[in-house]
Fold this protein.
Amino acid sequence: MRYIFFIIISFSTLFANAHIFVYHRFADDRYPSANTTKQELIKHFEYFKKYNYKVVPLSKITDKLEQNEDIPDNWIALTIDDAYKSFYEHGLEIFKQYNYPFSLYVYVQATDKKYGDFMSWDQIKESSKYGEIGLHSYSHPRLQNLSSKEIIEDTKKAYDTFEKRLNIKPQSYAYPYGEYNARVTKALKENFDFKFILNQNTGSVNKKTNIYDIPRIALVGKVNINHKLRYKTFDATWISPIVFPKDGILKSVHAKVDKKYKKLKLYITSEGWRDVKVKDGIVDEKLNIYLKRARTRVMLGPDVFTISNNVINKIKTKKQGE
Ligand SMILES: [Zn+2]
């Protein structure tokens, strides 16, 4: 008997894919939609250990990106947004037990003004012995609703306060709510010397990832960590939608992809998945969908785990010009 093995290398697996996860609160059952229990956290960490995943400092991954080098498939970086007190009280000890580094993103106003649920500067300093600390804005605004001038003001206030309290310059930034657009990114990139910026779009990181647009997968509630680790970023260049349509009607999805695809799957929030045709590397799907949600996710890819993520948010402001 003869066995013939076919090795199929698809476009999406040409590059190694590391994963970055984001946690919020720990062992805090008042907020189930942002919470990770201790048992759940241990479950994730045991999974990483058992299947030989390597939890590395986030900067190790971004160094690879800077040098345009492949990132090993089994690398994982763990981030924590907002610097809630519950991380210090319940999460940190588990990270320490496993010797897993993390990156903590500080909501500066909440810490500086001592809002009840948030870590103090001393607790952040203590945590910095075990992880990296980055910026998560001053006032936790929805950046897309601010003018560029307001974005710069908020970030400058956050940057200066962070530096004064911790005696270090923040190296990186995580968008509040993971919300941003090209104008937001431009304001941060051009006015601050952040080495990298993180979003909150489901996907993986490979050498082609834009260092100012790094995807992170949210881990909240009960998750199937094996599924999350299967996510891969699919390469697509989005032509539309780029912004939320003014009349709320999504008229088409238009993107450029690798020419080898003849059909793909398209996902739209509150519509679900559908099949779309690809012609000469172009997806141009005519639609007429009224978007019910202010936050709509449009995803495209060959399968539900290999996707390019595009989130459009309704902007709620009078002064959205600049
Ligand atoms: Zn946040």
The mean pLDDT is 93.
